[in-house]
Each structure stands twice: as C-alpha cells, then as structure tokens.
Amino acid sequence: MQCGVLVDYCDVFISCLDSHSDGPNYAMSNGGGGAGASISTHLLDLLEEPIPGVGTYDDFHTIDWVREKCKDRERHRKVTHHLISECITISLLNELNAAFARALAGVIDIAADWLNDLKEGVCLSAMWFNHEQCCWDSNETTFAERDKCPQWKTWAELILGQAEGPGSYIMNYFMFTFWALSFAFLAVSLVKVFAPYACGSGIPEIKTILSGFIIRGYLGKWTLMIKTITLVLAVASGLSLGKEGPLVHVACCCGNIFSYLFPKYSKNEAKKREVLSAASAAGVSVAFGAPIGGVLFSLEEVSYYFPLKTLWRSFFAALVAAFVLRSINPFGNSRLVLFYVEYHTPWYLFELFPFILLGVFGGLWGAFFIRANIAWCRRRKSTRFGKYPVLEVITVAAITAIVAFPNPYTRQNTSELIKELFTDCGPLESSQLCQYRSQMNGSQAYPAGSDAAAAPGVYSAMWQLSLALVFKIIMTIFTFGLKVPSGLFIPSMAIGAIAGRIVGIAVEQLAYYHHDWFLFREWCEVGADCITPGLYAMVGAAACLGGVTRMTVSLVVIVFELTGGLEYIVPLMAAVMTSKWVGDAFGREGIYEAHIRLNGSPSLDAKEEFPHPTLAREVMRPRGNDPPLAVLTQDDMTLAELQSIISQTSCNGFPVIVSKESQRLVGFALRRDITIAIENARRKQEGIMLNSRVYFTQHAPTLPADSPRPLKLRSILDMSPFTVTDHTPMEIVVDIFRKLGLRQCLVTHNGRLLGIITKKDILRHMAQMANQDPESIMFN
Amino acid sequence: MQCGVLVDYCDVFISCLDSHSDGPNYAMSNGGGGAGASISTHLLDLLEEPIPGVGTYDDFHTIDWVREKCKDRERHRKVTHHLISECITISLLNELNAAFARALAGVIDIAADWLNDLKEGVCLSAMWFNHEQCCWDSNETTFAERDKCPQWKTWAELILGQAEGPGSYIMNYFMFTFWALSFAFLAVSLVKVFAPYACGSGIPEIKTILSGFIIRGYLGKWTLMIKTITLVLAVASGLSLGKEGPLVHVACCCGNIFSYLFPKYSKNEAKKREVLSAASAAGVSVAFGAPIGGVLFSLEEVSYYFPLKTLWRSFFAALVAAFVLRSINPFGNSRLVLFYVEYHTPWYLFELFPFILLGVFGGLWGAFFIRANIAWCRRRKSTRFGKYPVLEVITVAAITAIVAFPNPYTRQNTSELIKELFTDCGPLESSQLCQYRSQMNGSQAYPAGSDAAAAPGVYSAMWQLSLALVFKIIMTIFTFGLKVPSGLFIPSMAIGAIAGRIVGIAVEQLAYYHHDWFLFREWCEVGADCITPGLYAMVGAAACLGGVTRMTVSLVVIVFELTGGLEYIVPLMAAVMTSKWVGDAFGREGIYEAHIRLNGSPSLDAKEEFPHPTLAREVMRPRGNDPPLAVLTQDDMTLAELQSIISQTSCNGFPVIVSKESQRLVGFALRRDITIAIENARRKQEGIMLNSRVYFTQHAPTLPADSPRPLKLRSILDMSPFTVTDHTPMEIVVDIFRKLGLRQCLVTHNGRLLGIITKKDILRHMAQMANQDPESIMFN
Questions:
Q1: Are residues A581 and A681 both part of a single domain?
Q2: Nearest CA of chain B to the CA of A638: how many Å?
Q3: Which residues of B touch A88 (CB under 8 A)?
Q4: Do A369 and A492 belong to one domain?
Q5: B282 and A CB contact within 8 Å
Q6: Residue B338: inside a domain, yes or no?
Q7: Residues A708-724: what's their mean pLDDT?
Q8: pLDDT score of B132 more than 80
Q9: Residue A20 pLDDT greater than 50, yes or no
Q10: How many domains does chain A have?
Q11: CB nearest A725 (choices: B322, B574, B719)
C-alpha cells in the first residue's frame, strides 16, 4: 500500500490504440490520426485528408491561440530549411509593409498639406503647389514675410481682387468654411458608402483584432483605400483630429494585405497577428518618426500576445520604416524627428513642481475627456441622433471652421501649432509668442532667448491660446468617434502643448519679475535664460497624451524621439507618471479600452486586474436552473442525434465524454468543424445515413451486421482541451485565458465534466462584478 | 437523448459540502476551509488556522507562480484601502531602492577611481584625492598638461625621486603590477571567505531567481556588502571586467533587503520578484544613466514574468534613479549620460556598409566569446583547476597587469578608453588619435574636425589599438567567470569601440585619399567632415555588446541614452540586428543563457522554441518500467501509510485521488506541506496516532467507534491542480509552464490520473531532444 497504483494506460475505450502511432504524424489533435491497423482502412484514408474549412473561423468570433500556434509548429516541422526562408519571408514582409506604409504616409502628408492650404488660397503659378512650395523661390527673403509672395493668392484676392479690408476677410472666412464643409462631406460620404470600417482611429479595433477576434474586412483593401483618401480629407477639413492613429490602422491594413502573399501568415490567425503587431509598430514609427517608440507602443498599448520574437520583429519593421523615412527625408532636416527642438538651458529642480502640475492637468483632462467622449458616443449609439452621421460630421465641421477661423492658433494646422509651441524663442523667431520687450526695443542688452518682460504680443497670444485651449477641448470631445478617420494623438498633444506653453510663460514672467524670490534666487540671475516655455509645452503635451491613452514608457520614448529632448527625460517621466496616477484615480481605462468596452468586443485586457474571490463553478455554464450542458458521447450516438444536438443548441463547441454515466472527458469538438465534417462525409463517403453511428474513438465500435456505415470524427476532435477544476479561483482562470489566449475551458470535478467556461462567460462575469450590464458583451 | 446530462454537483465524496461555504473565505485552496456544520468543530478550528511554514519553499526549489499570486490576491481582499497604501508602499520601496543603489554606485565609482589611480601614484596634498581631483586646482591650465601637477607623484618620483628614465619606468611598472595583484588577491579572498555568491556578474543568477527559483542568500546583506567592496577592488585591479552587471546584482540585493521592510513583498515570492524586476531596471538605470534602457533591459533580458504593472513600476524605479543621478551629477555636465557625444555630421547611406560589417564582427565576436568562455568555464568546473580560485585570479591579474602597462590604451581605465574612442576629434583634443596632418602643421586650412591625412600619431595609435583589441579579446574570455565580481558590458563595448574606431579611421582615410571614387564623390568633398570615426566606435560597441548578450531593442536604447546620439538610430539598429543574426547563426543562446545552462539552473527560457512533436505522455512520469506513481487517496489512508509513502519516495508532491479504483483526481498536496502539517498536528492535537485515518475531504469519513482521532489535511490540499491530457503536445505544455510559471502539472487520460510532469522533467526532456546530457539539470 505504500505506493500509488500505476494507471492502466490502455483504457477500455482506447484499448486498440496502436502504440506505434505516437510518431510525428500523430502529434496534432487536428492533424492525422495515425496509421494503426484498422478494418476500415478505406474510410480512414478518406478522412485523414484534411477536411477543407476545418480550423477556420467565422466572422466576429474569437480565435484559439493555442490551436493556431500548434498548427504553425506542425507546418514548421514539415518544412525543411525553414530558418533561412522564414527570415527572408519576414524581412520581405516587414520591408514591403514598412516601405509601403511610409510611402502612403508621405502621400497623405503632401495631399493633406495641399488641401489644407487650398482652404486659404491657391497657387497661381502651379495649382498643385501648397503655400510653402509656392513661395519657395519667391523674392521675399525676409523671414517674417516668407508667407507672402505674389504667386500665392488668397481667395479674396482671387475673387474680389483685394487682399485687405472687411470684405476680403469675410470672403476668406466664407471660402475657408466652404472648403472645410466640402472636405468633411466628401470624407463622411466616402466612408459611409464604401467602407464603414474606415471611420475612427482604428486603434481600439486593432487591439481587439490583435487580442484574437475576427473582424472580416476591417483590414481589407477597401478599408485601406478609403481610409487613406478620407484621412486626407478629414485632416484638411480642419476638424480637431490627427492622422497618427489612422496611420496605424493603414499600416495594419498594409500588413494584412501583404501577409496574403505568404500563405504561412494568411492561413494562420496567430501568425497573422504577429505580422500585425509589427505593422502597428511600423505605423507609429511612420507616423511620428519614432522607431523605438513604435515598438514600445505596440508592446504596451496595442498587442495582446507579444512574444519576444515579435519584439525584435517589430524592431526590424520600425528600422525599415525609419530607414525609408530617412531616405525620403520629409522634414527636410535629415533628422528622423518631427518636432525637432533644441533647448539651450537645462531644467532646474524647482521646475519639477510646474511639470507635475502639468501632469495633474493631463490626468484630469484625460479622465474628463474619456468620460465625456464615451457618454457622447453612447448617446450617439442609443438615440436617433446616431442615424445621421453625415449631418453630424457636417455640423461639427461647420462649427469647427466657423469658430476656428478668427483665431490664428486654431486656424493653422494643428501639428504646425504644436511645432510653434514647442519651439524656444530665438532671435529669428517672428511669432507673436516671442515678442519680448528687450527684443522689441532692438536693444540686445541680453543674449537672445534670455528671459525678458513680455510685450503686449505675448499677452494677446496668451488670450488667444486660452481660447484655443477651450475650443480644442470641446471640439475634440465631439470629434473623436465621428464617422470619419480621426486620431487622437495630435489634438491631445495640442491641448497639452497650449496648456504647457501658458504655464511656461507664466513661470517665466514670474522668474523675471521676482528673481529675488528664494525659489529663483539661486539659479536664475537677471538676464539669464532660466525658463524655457517650449519645454513646458512639450511636457504638457506628453502629460495630456498620457492622460488620454494611459501609456507610460512608450509615450516618453515617443516624445523624446519626436523632439530629440533626451535630457528632459526626468521632467517627461514625472509628468507622465503623475498624469497616469491622476487619471487612474478617476477610472483605470484609457480611451482605447473604453471604446473597446463601448463596442462590446470581447477583449480581455491584460492590464485590468480581476480582484473578486469567485470560483470557476460560479461562472461556468450550466448554472442553477440552466438546461444541462450539451455533450456528445464518444461512440454511442447516431448522426441524427448529433445533428439534433447541433441544431437545438447554439454553443460553439461540444465536450465529448466517455459515456453519460461516467462523465469522464475525452475531448472537445467545435460546432463549425462538426458541421463541415458531416457535410464533407455526406458528399464524399457513401452509406452515411441518419442512423449511422458517429464515433470519436480511434477505432469503430462493434456494430450489428445490418447497421449502416459509421462516421468517424476523431480527426476533428481536440484531444487536449483545457480543463480546470470547479474549485479553481476565477482569477487563475482569467489569467489562463489571458496568457494562453483560450477560447473556452472545461470545468471538471474529481475527474468528471461539470461545465464549460467561455471567454464570453468570463467577460460577462467581469461586467457583472463591476456592476455593469453583462449583456453589453455582444460577440462570442 | 438530445442533450447532455447535467453533472451531479454533489459527488459522493463531497456530498456534505455546504453550499453556503462558497463565500470569499472559501475561495482559496490554501486558505480556510469553510464553516460548514461539522461534528468535530474543535478539530476544525485548530486546523483552519494557517499552519506556520505551509506555503514556503526550500532552498534551490522552484516557486509556484500561480499559488503565490493567489496568496497575494487573497491578502489584497483582506486589506481595505489597499490602493493608496500600496501606491505609497511601492513608491517608498522603489525610491529607497533606487536612491540607495544610486548612492552605492556613487561610492563604488569614487572608490574605484581612487584605487585605480593609486596604482600609478599618490596625491601628496591629500591622500584621498584621485589624480583628477589632485590636479583640480593646479596651475597647469594647459589642456595637454592637465594631468601633470606637482601635488601628484608617481611611485617612481616618490621612491626613486626621479620622474623619467628606465629606472622609474620599471619602478612604476612594478608598483602598478603590485597594486593590481594586491587588489585582486584581496577581492578574491573576501569573496571566498565571506560571500561566495558575490562573484561573477550575477545577471544569470538573477534571471534564474526571477524565473522563480529560490537561492537563499544570493540577494542577502552579506552578498551586498562583499560584492560592493570586492567590485571596487576588482575594477581597480585592472582586470578586463566592468562594473555594470554587478551593479544590477547590487541593486537587486538592495531591492531584496528593502522588501523585508514590507511583509507583503517579503512573504510572497511572486511579489518579491516584481520588486526585483524593478530593481534590476533601476540597476541598469544607475549603471549607465539610461532609465528607459533599464526598463527595457529588465523586460527583454532579465525578467521571466513581466506583467505590464511591472513595466511602469520599473519605469518609476528608473525615474527615481535617474532623478537621484541628476541630483548627484556625477559626470559633471548636468546630463544624465555617461559617454556624452556630439557629432556634427549626419551619416550617409554608403556608411551603412561598414556599419553592417561592424555588426558582423560583433556577431562573430559574440559567438566566439560565448563558446570560448563556456568551454573554459566548463573546464574550470570539471577539472582540478577550479579548486584554486585565488591562484587563478592572481595569475590572470598578473598577466593582465604585465601586458597592460606598456600600452596606454590598455593601461587606462576601460570606460575612459571607451569615452576617448567615442569622442570626435575636435580642436581641443590632444589625444594621439586626433593627430592629423593639417592640425599638426598649425595651418587651420580646413575647419577643425574635418577629414585630413593621418599623421604618424594616428598610425601608432592604430597599432596600439590593434594590440589592445587582441589583448582585450583574450583576457575577457579568461576573466568572465573568475571568482570576483565581473561584468561584461564594459569589456564588450571596449572591444567593439576599438574595432569600430579602427574601421572608422580606415574609412576616413579612404575617403580622404580617394574622394573622387564614385562611392564618396557625391557627398564627400575635399576638406569636408564626412566620416566620424567616433560614430563607428559607438556602432561597434553596440554591435559587440549585442553579439554577446543578444539584446536588441534595449541595447539600442541604452546606447543612445548613453551617448545622446538619437540621430544615429538607424546605424545602431542595423548593426545590432546584423550582430544578432550573425550570432544566432552560431548558437541562439546569449552569454547569460549559456551560463544559466552551465549552472544547471532550471530556467525555462522564454525565447527558446520547443520544436519537437512529442506528446505529454512521453514526458510524464512514470514511464515504461518506472515504479508506479506515488498517489494518496482522499480518505482511506492511515497516518502510517502516508508517512511510509513520504519516506519511501523523493517526490516533491503527491496527487490525491478519489480511490485507487477510479483514479479520479481530487487535488495535489506538497510534500513539504504534508510534513509540516503532520508535525503541527502531532504537537497541537491530542490523539493523533500512527493508525489515525488521514482524510482530504470536507468531512471526516465514518469510522468505527474505537478508531483513533482522524487527521484532516484538506487545508493543505491544492484543489485546483493543473491538468493536461496525455495527448497534449509538449509544445503546449511547455507554453503553459512558461506563461503560468507552473511547478508541476498532472496528466490525465479520459478523466483518470496517468502521471505527472514537473519543470525538471520538461528541462530534462528538452536537453534530451537537443542531444544534451539530461542529467545536467540539477535542481528541482
């Protein structure tokens, strides 16, 4: 009695299992079934061929990561020399993808610039030139006058023939609004008619897809085409939106389309998602010129399942994107960075205080924005209002254009605004923001850039900036979620940059007028350049973006790649962490997670904790008064019984048990696979009738002589279903689902099958525990 | 027949399970056992108290991540307002840790500098000044002469009274060697006597610990103290080693020691590892001044289990470390960066070719180094040679000192060498490497720093550098693995920097003499500064470090944080990727993984794939002719039987089954827990005898009236053991073990227990599949 008993390997139901069948061709539950000696070899041969369609997924279903990964490894084993060919495939795929995405982004940039300038005027010498290109070889070499050249005509000059005066102002105002409305109308119409999936930023949906959900057509060629075109129009229409989020979607579309060139990636949903992860990294890399930031964004924000292999694959994609970017040199300074800044002063310890204040502002703004935007989107979804998307877009565009025109800071391109706010005041800077008294007098007593008393220009700029801040805050809430492509990065950064610049100028003036305060005394001498308002703008932008998206590391990396400000990493980190903490105090979800939940997509967020002490048996079905679980037995059902079970239930899969009496689990068969296999057998095998016996065992059960030919379904049986015991805490179950990417899990008690837990059950349970409506989880 | 049968929830063995006991206090298998009405309330009460010692681990055992995480969540639920207090705890812990690690690193820096200079001479005005501090306020203001000041005396001047001549050279040579040997002897003796764990870089062991292995004392206070002291000595002895890897170990020691201030972290092995992950990030942050790189290093290289929570916790630790670093300002330039470089020229497309060449060199060096070093370490381990560590260290130190002294590039501090190699030649640069002809003639025809013909100084520097390269390559192989603290970052970077500088100067001279070649014609005019040899050194350093460690993203980030060279990200990425590919072609393991395998630690590397088509039943025990699996039955064993099973087997745990006949699995009990529980019961409960019945069920089985008091062990039973079916492919099992951090997993077939797979079984199987000796896996 001192030792346990050796379990009999040969169970009664698999007693004829040939031990030679353990070879490679037997490894996969979905693969072949082994070559054991059998009485019905013919039947076996027919069925061992892979049945077409088995192992694919329906739209709006969740993939089974484990199964997909197994399929890939199985394929690997069959292919020799896979290492080199795979390297080449991946390289090629990534290169194609990154290069194409980069090229598209370049086209979008140029087209959006042109259309944006079209709102103000037109280049007479060459229609296809934007304002800057038009005045490129103008004679006006003065820096302040660089925008005015004879070739460039505003609409008022063109139509009314006069450049100044109230009439021409109204004409320009009218044309500005007219073009904005036209672009917006065109954008929303194209989206509505051709590709409804092209709207929004796309990042929430990509997160859902990467977490293993199937949305057919979301990354298709139509979406790509329409999104590219409408993105240009939406940006040009002047709506408070950015092009960075949609560019990630565009890059993922490219990745998806290119993956069809390689069956390895197109046929395996898990492998495809690895490509998409890399593509999203390339997207950010392309959008911002931030390769490392892109990789981290993909890791921290987008990807659900991120093996280390994907890390360096993303890295490679980002490398190629950065390289192509450098070859194209779009920013004209042979640098990779979009908003390159060069500050001449270090920061001081005291400045951490305003930086943290900006972090608090960012966190509050993020929390407020998420709540307001989600409330508005929910209202749009639930009321009649959402039925007129075109009208809504046009209304928002009209309000935006009308309010934006009078204020120079809202009229201009948002990314140019950010660039201006980030820039430190130098001697060449002609902007209103840099009108300091010492420079106005022309008396260069202090070196350029040093702190000085603000002139009226700065005060009026402050007013205009404050109005712009309020305007951007309100409009962004109503814009994000419209049925046009709309990103959130640039508007959020603009809001933060405005707030930051205002705080920066305030601190600067404080230091100028009170440089004998104990706070400033030690480090800020008269005439020295102690405060850099541009740095405050940068920190504010990072804080606001952090508040909205709740990114931390990737955001800091993106910002310092954007600006080249490696020395300001501590201020950035402090602001971003503060912003995250403040934001999290009001709600732990970032805007993307909030939108995923609003859409009801089944995404198990890796960041959210599951803090409840429930057990698996409280979550599994059947519960309490539910009808019993639909199960199949391994060898004593007829085809008619099987079909009636399938038709009378809506489950996606059925556990297969040894017998009703013992309830011991054998495996799991998916509904889709069973249906396909039955149809396939009916078409290909003769003698399959309604009273044919269906069996999942290795060999056919002994049948009476007159019974019709049995149907073997072992090849579609998953013989390694995941099981947990009924006492398993739900936190462990949630962990397993997240980490392994499961679709369902069976619950046993003392070796007997009790029930089943699907991803949907878990999401419903989580919603219930959080006092939300469990019916908001819509898909399977 | 159309639907499955609802499984009877009330199994015969748990028929009295009270349904009210589903509340929170019942959630944990290790927690309490519920409050169902019982006949033996007294007994229950006694046993429901947590038994001291249950749930802890022995030395050199693997932790069970799932159980640890559950314990923490259980604790969470009991503590109210945990969010704020936890935030404060974490912040405090991280701050303490990062600040302390930073302070220690500062002390190490200063002490190592002083000792290093002591080898050459001594400061007469103040003994505790190093060379630089000694000459700080010297009158010699010439840049070239800054090293020579009257206060600083070389040993020859002090002892022989003369500064020049062969006699003084020999005297200096002798003293240099003498001090080097003394330091090395002291270091190895201290390590040997006080803390054997203080040797090596510590990163392989930390990786093992983070993957869930217990090595008591490895992160203790003695290790910390001795490692700090001996690190200073080892660096000062001039051995070819760096202090960056050991600093990560030191930071982890700090993290471990500070975690004892908070029971939450000290009592939970999984939580402690989260702190250690953050500590390792702080360590790199402190060592290099690279906060983001530290976080990524922790993610890519060190951590096994890295939840996103840890990401921003590491980020916070790195932030604090960076902040403290900035407050201390050790590099004297108010920058965070160690090797700050400023290059004035962009790179050109053609230069990618030499950069990739450097990548190839780095990969080859990495592969060669790993093989050679592992072969040498294995030899040390297996032969008598390893029994004299002190002798070995002294021999290596003597050879190093004797060979290093004559060559200025090997005599100087390695990190100063790297700094010199990274620096671009400016007009102020007096080093031999910058002796170009145009500058020598004093005719500043071209702007400083522009390409020029090399003068003899450069050629002799090239020779010396080549010799230094060979010397460093050979010595590093024999140094890494000595019984002194030794890091690999700095020597690897030095080798790469030397190779890079040589290639850079070669390309520069090529461009100078052949600027009409088609390769150079377009972008390199005469007199222009086209090639920056310092950039080549930086790229080479990154490539070599990448070849040795196989880091990618984190390495690039570390290097550009080290140098501030954000614009050179594409060259860096290209070189690092090439180096990784070339290195991987010779063997996929980095140096740390290779050392882990050499040590036989049970670490399932997340990067390695498991490509074999085996099934779970081929790996599980018992196999073939093995004795049957030792199992416990849930209610029909006596204490004597239980004890005899425990004493006759060496398994770490035993599955509990319903009965020998049904073989249905109930749960899993750990050997250690059973032993502790029995001892505890014997001490506290009366009437426990050898023929007492042991039961794992909720209620005591009905016993004859005269039988002794039964012993209830349900509280130590893990009622949610992980199970897989015997048909599960091993690749899935490996994946589950990796992702969930399991210690063991039970194998079932059709609901019956077949066997068990432990982490050790998997590692043995993997070794077998790779044709290695399975017995090299030593621990459990």
A1: no
A2: 10
A3: none
A4: yes
A5: no
A6: no
A7: 84
A8: no
A9: no
A10: 3
A11: B719
Q: Which residues of B419-454 are buried (b: 16+ CB within 10 A; e: fewer)?
A: bbbbbbbeeebeebbbbbebbeeeeeebebbbbbeb
CA distance B490 to A731: 44
Residues of A34-52 as b/e, b for ≥16 C-beta within 10 angstroms?
bbeebeeeebbeebbeebe
Closest to A243 measured CA to CA, from A303, A180, A310, A288: A288
- Residue B498: which CATH number? 1.10.3080.10
pLDDT digits (tens, 9 = 90+) for A291-346: 778 888 887 777 666 666 667 777 777 777 777 766 665 544 444 456 767 776 77
The ipTM estimated for the assembled molecules is 0.74
Q: Per-residue pLDDT tens for A405-434?
A: 888 888 888 888 888 888 877 665 666 777
Q: Which residues make beta-bridge pairs with A755?
A: A747
Question: Same domain for B282 and B155?
Answer: yes
Instruction: Measure CB to CB from residue B752 to each of A567, A751, A754 and give the nearest one.
Output: A751
Burial class (CB in 10 A: 0-12, 13-18, 19+), B747: buried
Select the residue from A102, A292, A311, A644 to test the B interface by mutation, using most B Cβ atoms within 10 A.
A292
Give the model confidence (pLDDT) of B376-423 as tens digits: 988 888 888 778 888 899 999 999 999 988 888 888 888 888 888 888
The answer to whether residues A528 and A618 belong to one domain is no
> Among B270, B292, B327, which residue terminates a domain?
B327
Q: Are residues B20 and B133 part of one domain?
A: no
In a domain, A334, yes or no: no
Q: pTM, whole model, 2 decimals?
A: 0.79
Q: Is residue B459 part of a domain?
A: yes
Residue A204 sits at the chain B interface (C-beta within 8 Å): no
Of residues B312, B611, B648, nearest to A2 (C-beta): B648
Contact A94, A278 (CB under 8 A): yes
Cα(A722)–Cα(A739) distance, rounded to whole angstroms?
13
Among A6, A574, A664, select the one facing B750 at the smallest CB separation. Answer: A664
Q: Please check whether residues A572 and A537 belong to one and the same domain.
A: yes
Residue A526 has a pLDDT of 63
Q: Give the domain extent around B709.
A: 1-56+604-780
Q: Which of A269, A297, A328 is the last residue of a domain?
A: A328
In a domain, B79, yes or no: no
Q: Quick check: B720 and A720 CB within 8 A?
A: no
3-state secondary structure of B386: helix
Residues 6+ away with beta carbon under 8 Å from B626: none
Assess A353–B contact: CB distance below 8 Å, yes or no. no
Question: Which of 362-391 (B) contact A at CB < 8 A?
Answer: none
Q: CA nearest B667 in A: which residue?
A: A750
Same domain, A479 and A359: yes
Asked whether the predicted pLDDT for residue A362 surpasses 90, the reply is yes
Whether B242 and B386 map to the same domain: the answer is no
B contacts of A728 (beta carbons < 8 Å): 719-720
Of A462-476, B325-339, B615-629, B692-706, the poorest mean pLDDT is in B325-339
